[in-house]
Amino acid sequence: MTRPRGRPARGQGVTRDAILDAALALLDEDGDAGLTMRSLAARLGVTPMSLYHHVTDRAGLLRALSDRLYGDVLQGVDEAGGPVEGIRMLMTRYYDAVVMHPQLTLAIFAEPAAFAGASLEITERLGALLAAVTPAHLVWRDILVDHAHGSGLALIAARGDVARVGALRDAYRQALDCLLAQFPVV
Amino acid sequence: MTRPRGRPARGQGVTRDAILDAALALLDEDGDAGLTMRSLAARLGVTPMSLYHHVTDRAGLLRALSDRLYGDVLQGVDEAGGPVEGIRMLMTRYYDAVVMHPQLTLAIFAEPAAFAGASLEITERLGALLAAVTPAHLVWRDILVDHAHGSGLALIAARGDVARVGALRDAYRQALDCLLAQFPVV
DNA sequence: ACCTGAACACCGTTCAAGT
DNA sequence: ACCTGAACACCGTTCAAGT
After folding, report:
1. A116/B178 Cβ within 8 A
2. In a shared domain, residues A93 and A12
3. Contact A115, A108 (CB under 8 A)
4. Which among A73, B41, B176, B181 could disulfide-bond with B48, CB atoms 3.0 to 4.6 Å apart, if both were Cys?
5. Model pLDDT for residues B1-15, shown as the tens digit of each residue
6. Cβ-based burial of A184 (10 A; exposed 0-12, middle 13-18, buried ≥19)
7. Are residues A134 and A78 in the same domain?
8. Both B13 and B77 in a single domain?
């Protein structure tokens, strides 16, 4: 378990990806309090200080996790079915990302810098889609984004309970239908 | 600054209310990280350990703060103007509570026990009001509550910037109008 | 009842020393 | 470049001792 003092053999060191994976697992298991630089290092069989060679900070760690989770939400969102269907796809994919790791989402809220980066792109795309169906596209953009965030955080209270998570997810989709019913199908 | 070792003279000790006030101030200034039992004690000119005579825990402290903030949201909500106006009043008061201390709201999300207590009453009342205007009252209850939470958290990114907070507040009211326009004015 | 002081088991992060 | 070990300035909380 104890490693030699110097530079590890090629391929024996910790990867940045391995760090991110382990960090996300800790966050999912025990929330923000469960993810400490020390617990993370322990899980990787490494000294806490070695993490700082791959990550700037705890804040930088959260930012990297956020980028990885939200980075490809926009992938696969197309407008083939019209703008309303595009919006539905986008919001569903966004919510699904939150569902996968609500604890990460919560942690990111406390780290505004991490949050802003990943969500900017998503927000802009959503605004563009909404502009095609309503003049009040900015208001509706905020409604949809805020609703997704609020719904995502509701998942934290349902920690681990698979049935409740499923019910909340259904409720989200239903709410989304309800909201999108405002707009004419173009 | 240094106090005597024994029981303080009557009226010289720290009050539970003084503790809660100082804790809220710290939370507003520097967020969750700014509120430590030690910084709180320092601000009150007291040893950290003396706090435990008035509060069970750090968690208990947050719960008490939550009860105080959300405890009287329902006060002054009447149905004189019909159910839709009642809903508008309730949601506005709820959002205003979040606006006053978004950092507390965020901290509470991480402490599900604290959250549940205060919000249960509010959620129930909202559901009852909605039942008068739509059969889908449970769906709409979740939409409105989640939207309020998401909007409240958006305030954290606008930290301190009074103009932005004002703009977000206006956006919330506009969104609420937009959402409530669904329902017939009874 | 209500405070202090010392202590325990934690944190994140820096810095110098190793290979 | 990438790891270790020791150290610094923090945490929350417990426990015994004071009045």
Report:
1. no
2. no
3. yes
4. B41
5. 467 777 787 666 899
6. exposed
7. yes
8. no
Q: Are residues B97 and B132 located together in one domain of the fold?
A: yes
Residue B38 clears pLDDT 80, i.e. is over it = yes
| SS3 call for A149 | helix
Whichever domain contains B17, its CATH number is 1.10.10.60
Residues of A within an 8 Å Cβ radius of B = 31-32, 106, 109-110, 112, 115-116, 136, 139-140, 142-143, 145-151, 153-154, 156-157, 159, 171, 174-175, 178-179
Average pLDDT estimate for B114-119: 75
User: Would you call B103 exposed, middle or buried from its count of C-beta atoms within 10 A (0-12, 13-18, 19+)?
Assistant: buried
Choose from B109, B133, B134, B169 for mutation: most chain A CBs within 10 A.
B109
Which residue of chain B is at minimal alpha-carbon distance from A114?
Answer: B157
Domain that holds residue A22: 1-55
Asked if residue B60 belongs to a domain, the reply is: no
Q: What is the pTM of this model?
A: 0.90
